[in-house]
Design a protein that fits this description.
Keywords: ATP-binding, Ligase, Nucleotide-binding. This protein is an alpha/beta fold. Helices cover 49% and strands 10% of the residues. It folds into three domains: 3-93, Arginyl tRNA synthetase N-terminal domain (Gyrase A, domain 2, 2-Layer Sandwich); 124-222; 232-351, Orthogonal Bundle (Isoleucyl-tRNA Synthetase, Domain 1). It has helices at residues 3-19, 48-56, 60-72, 95-109, 132-147, 193-211, 232-253, 270-292, 296-316, 329-351, and strands spanning 33-35, 44-46, 77-83, 87-92, 123-128, 151-156, 173-174, 182-184.
Amino acid sequence: MTPADLSRTVLHAVRRAVDEDALRAPVPARVRVERSRPGGSGDYACAVALQLARPAGLPALEIARILRERVAAEPGVGRVEITGPGFLSFTLDAPAVGDRAVLGAVREQGLGYGHGGALGGEIHQLHHAREVRAAVTAQAVFRLLVAQGARGRTTCEQAPDPDWARLGVTVDAYGTPPTPLAEIRPVPAGATAGELLERLGPDAARWGLLRAAGHDRAALGPELLVQGEANPLFRVRYAHARARALTRGATALGFTADAAPYGESPAPYDEAARPLTDLIADHPGVLLAAARHRAPDRVARQLEAVAHAFFDFHDSCPSLPAGDEKPSAAHRARLALAEAAGTVLAGGLSLLGIRAPEHL
């Protein structure tokens, strides 16, 4: 069960409680499920009972008890606990099956993993100033919205800078809009597109413009071109290239990835794999949140986290046999996770309009 699956399960429990007249409150459009914080209980936590307490006219603890019995009966949910003033904490059943399902979804959906139809039917008109960071941000937000099923267009206050095209930016129309639109106004870059392209090139320029939150100033210095671990963009792209190199190495040794044995007990690589599998499982939720909040910086930070977890996993659990060692089920499973990480990195970079080279 993925976080998105669990969110739908909790929402279904709320709807059932309302239909059965056990709870009298409006059913929310969505339910937010998050990873339990360090020291917390279970795998995931949810505050929906606190959210419903006021409209339902009931204590949050009572609502949590109503929902607990309905969620606990669902397949894939091992245990549901109530903590604090009414938080629901979930421990999932058979996590290895969930991991295999996540890796299978990445393999099946490819670069489209995390895309969906949650925003289907919505129409967004993004309007921005004639400024390079606003233009790049609006275009990235548009990509994120479309990836979640929305439709729309981007417009600019004035005729676009011709150099924007070299950054992959297009504008559907320009001028004063006849009706109020969704304005994209990050802190200006302080440089033109031409200047950034000359100093950084398109990929580093886009990363620098999108990595910081819109209310923060973008870092657009020469550090974006450093070929080393201190540069997050290099680290993300290198993690992708390394994952692809592992696939080529496995092919040369005559074996392929296989997630089937992943998580079997005993499994000497499970502990090191957990942060990476969790991030991959959470990726669809991150993309949806980035689209809803018009925040491509969330995608950039997610990719950095995936790259960091990938290298930790890769260093602890080699995907390729060494010396005369024969490929084992563990190697095939590790390769499946490494390939999934590479796919997530490539897909996320694509949404930001940045290339993911196979070789660095």
